[in-house]
C-alpha cells in the first residue's frame, strides 16, 4: 500500500525496507522504513509528505520523511524496537473508542505475578519456545524491557511495555499469552522463563490476540555508527556474544 503510493507519487518503482514486520491485525504507530532513490528524485522529497498522504487510506499516515545517510538501513541499523500491548478485564469489555487496540480479556489478571514472570524473561536468550521458526533464521533475542502497568485514567486496563533488539515471528504475542496464564493464576511466575530451555515452539503457549499489540517506536544509533550496527545485526547471533 505505502510502496504503491510512493511509487505513484515519484513515478518510479520502489522497494521499501521496514524496521519491523507485524502480524496481521497488529498496529504500528512508530514504524520506520527506507527506500533507495535515484539521485535525480532526491529534490522531489521536499513537499512529498502531503501528496503521499492524499493517496493513502484514512488508517495509514506518514508523519515525517527525509534524507538519511547511505549507511542507514531501517531494519538492520535498528538498536531496538518498542511495543505496547493493551488488555482490559472490565466486565463490559473494551471502551468503544479504544476497542480497536484493546483486547477484552474475560478473566481477572493480577499484575504483580505478571511483572514477576516478565522480569524473569529479560536478557539475551533463545526464544524458540515463543517464536514461529523460519528456516535459517535465529531465535536469539535480547529482551530489554517487559513490564505491566495500569493505563492512566482507564480502570481495568493493563498495558505491557516490551522492548528488544529485535523480535522473531509472533514472539511478543506469545510472551504476552504466556504471562496471561500467570496473571490468571493457572501457572507459576517462573513458568514462562522455564520454557526458554525448549528448542522448539511450546505448544501450550497461547498466542495473544493481535489487535492489542502496537509497534510504538524504533531506536537507531548515531549516523557514524549505522554501518557497524547493520553489519553486526546481519551476523547470525549466538547467546552471550556482544
From TrEMBL:
Which parts of the sequence belong to the Pseudouridine synthase I TruA alpha/beta domain? 117-221
Q: Could you say which residues bind substrate here?
A: 83
Question: Which keywords has UniProt assigned to this entry?
Answer: Isomerase, tRNA processing
Q: Does the keyword tRNA processing apply?
A: yes
Catalyses which reaction?
Answer: uridine(38/39/40) in tRNA = pseudouridine(38/39/40) in tRNA
A Pfam family found in this protein is: PseudoU_synth_1
List the catalytic residues.
23
GO-annotated biological processes: tRNA pseudouridine synthesis
Cited InterPro entries: PsdUridine_synth_cat_dom_sf, PsdUridine_synth_TruA, PsdUridine_synth_TruA_a/b_dom, PsdUridine_synth_TruA_C, TruA/RsuA/RluB/E/F_N
Per the record, the similarity remark reads: Belongs to the tRNA pseudouridine synthase TruA family.
- Which named protein is this? tRNA pseudouridine synthase
Species annotation = Pseudonocardia alni
Amino acid at each position: 500500500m505505502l510502496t504503491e503510493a510512493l511509487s505513484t507519487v515519484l513515478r518510479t518503482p520502489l522497494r521499501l525496507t521496514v524496521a519491523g514486520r507485524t502480524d496481521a491485525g497488529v498496529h504500528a504507530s512508530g514504524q520506520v522504513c527506507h527506500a533507495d532513490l535515484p539521485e535525480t528524485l532526491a529534490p522531489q522529497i521536499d513537499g512529498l509528505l502531503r501528496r503521499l498522504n492524499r493517496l493513502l487510506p484514512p488508517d495509514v499516515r506518514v508523519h515525517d520523511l527525509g534524507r538519511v545517510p547511505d549507511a542507514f538501513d531501517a531494519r538492520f541499523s535498528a538498536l531496538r524496537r518498542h511495543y505496547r500491548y493493551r488488555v482490559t478485564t472490565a466486565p463490559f469489555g473494551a471502551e468503544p473508542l479504544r476497542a480497536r487496540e484493546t483486547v477484552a480479556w474475560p478473566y481477572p489478571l493480577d499484575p504483580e505475578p505478571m511483572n514477576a514472570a516478565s522480569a524473569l524473561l529479560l536478557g539475551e536468550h533463545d526464544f524458540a519456545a515463543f517464536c514461529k521458526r523460519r528456516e535459517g533464521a535465529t531465535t536469539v533475542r535480547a529482551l530489554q524491557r517487559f513490564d505491566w502497568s495500569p493505563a492512566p485514567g482507564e480502570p481495568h486496563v493493563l498495558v505491557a511495555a516490551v522492548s528488544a533488539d529485535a523480535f522473531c515471528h509472533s514472539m511478543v504475542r506469545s510472551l504476552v499469552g504466556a504471562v496471561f496464564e500467570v496473571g490468571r493464576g493457572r501457572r507459576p511466575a517462573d513458568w514462562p522463563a522455564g520454557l526458554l530451555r525448549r528448542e522448539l515452539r511450546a505448544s501450550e503457549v497461547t498466542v495473544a490476540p493481535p489487535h492489542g499489540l502496537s509497534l510504538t517506536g524504533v531506536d537507531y544509533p548515531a549516523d557514524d555508527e549505522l554501518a557497524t550496527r547493520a553489519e553486526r545485526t546481519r551476523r547470525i547471533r549466538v547467546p552471550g556474544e556482544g
